[in-house]
């Protein structure tokens, strides 16, 4: 039986960092953010729907979607965010389930689904165990601004478009406190996996 682990947290809490650690342990990861980029490439159904909804002004010269521009629209307007989610999420879900099925068939001991909006999108039934990666709010804000080069206002808008991480912790089977060093978080991850007999 393949153990399906859901990896989540809040924006810039360290999911991608922890996801790299799973890969170092040779555990495959299905990445919702990566899939969310693939399903909006020109030619895809979701791409056409987004252009219909948001207009050609959100396109770059090469006809691909200007993610910065689309982000500035949807993180300041909840109605528009819901519209975008309604277009993109079904395509993301479908592809994630196909990938999960493939790994399950290959009889992997464990597979990870890295889903930033696991709780917001009510996808907890996709997974058997949930790991939440968290950092305190100041560290989250600092890391987000320095990674994306965004202003405090932009960063806070993104943070506030998600369920607060302290609420997610309550719903987790295991938590990784990523306020410390990456090595420290790697140690916490290995402890969790040993407890679940994956390592
Ligand atoms: C708005 C878009 C174009 C901005 O792209 P950008 O390259 O700047 O950000 P990226 O996709 O790397 O997302 C970064 C993080 O933002 C957060 N985030 C993204 N979309 C959303 C959303 N709809 N609601 C809340 N948080 C979100 C997540 O924590 C994600 O990890 C893009 O995020 C998007 O298409 N979002 C809709 C799809 C989605 O919900 N993706 C996230 C979960 S699968
Ligand atoms: N323990 C750590 N110490 C210092 N910096 C860290 C640590 N963990 C992550 N970071 C840095 O913080 C930033 C956010 O981390 P990461 O990209 O892994 O978050 P995320 O949760 O995947 O974000 P998103 O929701 O946007 O996908 C990155 O620049 C990363 O290198």
From TrEMBL:
Keywords: ATP-binding, Coenzyme A biosynthesis, Cytoplasm, Kinase, Nucleotide-binding, Transferase. GO terms for biological process: coenzyme A biosynthetic process. It catalyses: 3'-dephospho-CoA + ATP = ADP + CoA + H(+). GO terms for cellular component: cytoplasm. ATP binds at residues 12-17. Pathway: Cofactor biosynthesis; coenzyme A biosynthesis; CoA from (R)-pantothenate: step 5/5. One of its GO terms (molecular function) is dephospho-CoA kinase activity. SUPFAM superfamilies: P-loop containing nucleoside triphosphate hydrolases (SSF52540). Its EC number is 2.7.1.24. InterPro entries: Depp_CoAkinase, P-loop_NTPase. Pfam families: CoaE. Its main location: cytoplasm. It is found in: Cytoplasm. Belongs to the CoaE family. PANTHER family: BIFUNCTIONAL COENZYME A SYNTHASE-RELATED, DEPHOSPHO-COA KINASE-RELATED. Catalyzes the phosphorylation of the 3'-hydroxyl group of dephosphocoenzyme A to form coenzyme A. NCBIfam families: dephospho-CoA kinase. This is Dephospho-CoA kinase. It comes from Ornithinibacillus bavariensis. The gene is coaE.
């Amino acid at each position: 039986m393949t153990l399906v682990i859901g990896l989540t947290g809040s924006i810039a809490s360290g999911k991608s960092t922890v996801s790299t650690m799973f890969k170092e342990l040779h555990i495959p990861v299905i990445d919702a953010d990566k899939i969310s980029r693939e399903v909006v490439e020109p030619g895809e159904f979701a791409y056409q729907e987004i252009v219909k909804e948001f207009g050609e002004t959100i396109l770059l010269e090469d006809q691909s979607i200007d993610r910065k521009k689309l982000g500035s629209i949807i993180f300041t307007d909840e109605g528009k965010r819901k519209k975008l989610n309604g277009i993109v999420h079904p395509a993301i879900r479908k592809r994630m389930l196909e990938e999960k099925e493939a790994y399950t068939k290959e009889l992997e001991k464990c597979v990870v689904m890295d889903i930033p909006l696991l709780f917001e999108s009510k996808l907890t039934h996709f997974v058997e165990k949930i790991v939440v990666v968290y950092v305190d709010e100041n560290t989250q804000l600092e890391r987000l601004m320095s990674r994306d080069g965004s202003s405090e206002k932009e960063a806070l808008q993104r943070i506030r478009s998600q369920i607060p991480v302290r609420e997610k912790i309550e719903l987790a089977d295991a938590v990784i406190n990523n306020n410390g060093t990456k090595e420290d978080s790697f140690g916490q991850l290995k402890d969790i996996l040993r407890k679940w007999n994956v390592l």
